[in-house]
Specification:
The chain has 17 helices and 8 strands. By secondary structure, the chain is mainly alpha-helical. The protein has 3 domains: 257 residues, Serine Threonine Protein Phosphatase 5, Tetratricopeptide repeat, CATH 1.25.40.390; 148 residues, Tetratricopeptide repeat domain (Serine Threonine Protein Phosphatase 5, Tetratricopeptide repeat, Alpha Horseshoe), CATH 1.25.40; 85 residues, no CATH class. Helix 2 packs antiparallel against helix 5, helix 10 runs antiparallel to helix 13 and helix 13 packs across helix 14. The radius of gyration is 22 Å and the shape is globular.
């Protein structure tokens, strides 16, 4: 939870609520409202504004605590949180998570029956473009200031600008991955009355690639920046992910390019954490393998989204609290996913509902057969399914979280971490990429499994290292970390009938879904507002 301090009172008003900007060419009447014209006064002010850019992923309002002063309108401030919505669209639509609540259309995600007017799709889309808009304004203003300052101020301002460009590229990656062909705005598009042009997925791919390469040397060296801020390794990770998914995005494999940057990540100063549980506890800022976290702090980043949502919504039905003040009984997983760990219903007892004897210690699940049902016969009943206890608001030794609060958590979300790079290395090699070898890939995978098993009993042979194995191992290692939807699409198993899970297609046994759902729809309200946009096929 140690992080760049977030000043949530900083407001940059040049924001996009939809991609049509006709209503935003205004100057606030209230002199107490901060705008770009009076915000960027000195280096400290620029750093505060940079903190706001990072904060857009963690909190979604100006007062904290879900205080009713949201960044965007049209959805509850806590529902509209960036990480909360990103997590929902990446996880609830897969075999890794299912939700019991009846909030609007939330159940449609696991069923894969969402529509263009879905409020949650619209909320994430708006959060993506809100972040992009703030980054654009920061980049534009810092570019104007850099020639007029000198010394450490100029050096730091160049670094801040590079980080803003990275964050913009990160959000554009979310856009290309989830929505495909989208509206495109940069710092060159000054706020005013215009409708942004539509950029194709291929052109956006090229833009993200060029941005990340352009800022590579401007970013801090790996681990040379403050914790919670992006460095070169974060840019290398994002480039690796862009290239690994290139077949999906542009119809052209780029596994060799992926290996180029994966090797740079692995060769950097980040190192493999021997303690798997620490990566998901309130002292995970001490983990040597987290490359890019979304930071949370029980006292300073208070909102009912982000990690507070993930931990509270996944708790209930007698589960241990692990530092939170109560469960909301919402999200859990299903038997199809749990089966990847080699565990079954009979392994869990009322006396040992955590199944602490599981061989794979990453199987951080809860199931009490006296009060829970293994199969989800009723989606709306939280105790139908299997609880997940992966994230915890205590330290890795069980101690109280730093800056603890009874409702808000201090555990950071690990967006990028080194073990993911190990698994991407193995996948890129298996997909024919040049720049790696099968022997090294096997070594990386077995290192991961030795941590999981505590010994070599879970090691695999070269013959077992297949793409199907990699997909399953990514699930076992990275579940609930916002990778699953993207992974299943890359492996051709998200839609269609090659892989079915409980309630896929709104059928308890699971049924095939159409391939157009590999992309989310462009929100209906943005199609109305911007004549340059076109709806994704199938919607």
């Amino acid at each position: 939870m140690r992080q760049l301090k977030i000043y949530i009172t900083v407001i940059i008003t040049m924001v996009i609520m939809s991609s049509c900007l006709k209503d935003l060419d205004v100057t606030p009447i209230d002199p107490s409202i901060t705008t770009s014209s009076n915000l960027f006064k000195n280096e400290a002010a620029f750093k505060q504004a940079l903190a706001k850019l990072y904060a857009t992923y963690a909190i979604s309002g100006q007062t904290g605590g879900g205080g009713g002063n949201p960044d965007i309108q049209g959805i509850d401030e806590n529902f509209g949180n960036y990480l909360r919505q990103y997590w929902g669209l990446q996880e609830l639509s897969t075999d890794e998570a299912i939700i019991a609540w009846d909030d609007a259309t939330i159940k449609n995600f696991h069923w894969q029956t969402w529509a263009p007017n879905d409020v949650f799709v619209s909320a994430l889309y708006s959060r993506i473009y809100y972040t992009i808009a703030l980054c654009n304004e920061f980049i534009r203003t810092s570019s104007e200031r850099i020639p007029n300052v000198s010394g450490s101020y100029q050096t730091n301002l160049k670094l801040f600008k590079a980080e803003a460009r990275f964050l913009r590229a990160l959000s554009y990656w979310h856009a290309i991955d989830m929505f495909g062909n989208v509206p495109f705005v940069t710092e060159a598009n000054k706020p005013g009355a215009f409708s942004p042009e539509r950029i194709t997925r291929a052109n956006l791919f090229n833009y993200i690639e060029s941005e990340l390469k352009a800022i590579e040397t401007d970013l801090a060296a790996p681990k040379a920046n403050e914790y919670g801020r992006a460095d070169r390794a974060a840019a290398w990770m994002l480039l690796s992910k862009l290239y690994l998914n290139a077949q999906v995005y542009i119809g052209q494999a780029k596994n060799t390019e992926a290996l180029t940057y994966i090797n740079q990540v692995i060769g950097s100063t980040y190192s493999f954490d021997p303690n798997y549980q620490r990566i998901f506890c309130a002292d995970n800022n001490e983990s040597p393998e987290i490359i890019l976290p979304i930071c949370f702090d029980g006292q300073n980043t208070q909102q009912y989204g982000g990690m507070t949502f993930i931990m509270h919504a996944s708790n209930g039905g007698g589960m241990p609290l692990y530092g939170i003040d109560g469960g909301w009984g919402g999200i859990r997983t299903i038997k199809n996913f749990v089966s990847l760990f080699g565990v079954q219903e009979s392994d869990y007892t009322s006396g040992n509902p955590l199944n602490t004897g599981a061989a794979d210690k990453r199987a951080l699940f809860y199931f009490n057969p006296d009060t829970w049902k293994w199969s989800v016969s009723n989606v709306g009943t939280f105790t139908n399914g299997i609880g997940v206890v992966k994230f915890r608001n205590v330290t890795s030794t069980g101690g109280e979280a730093p800056n603890s609060h009874p409702s808000f958590v201090s555990t950071d979300f690990p967006m990028f971490r080194l073990t993911d790079a190990y698994l991407m290395y193995a996948e890129a090699v298996l997909r024919g990429g040049v720049g790696g070898d099968a022997g090294t890939a096997l070594t990386y995978v077995n290192q991961i499994r030795q941590r999981a098993y505590g010994n070599a009993s879970g090691n695999i042979t070269s013959g077992q290292l297949t793409l199907d194995f990699i997909l399953d191992e990514r699930g076992r290692e990275l579940y609930w970390e916002c990778h699953r939807r993207t992974d299943l699409i890359r492996f051709g198993k998200f839609t269609g009938g090659s892989y079915l899970w409980e309630w896929k297609g709104n059928s308890q046994a699971g049924t095939a879904t159409p391939a157009f759902r590999d992309l989310y729809p462009i929100p209906a309200n943005d199609l109305v507002a911007n004549p340059n946009l076109k709806q994704n096929d199938g919607y």
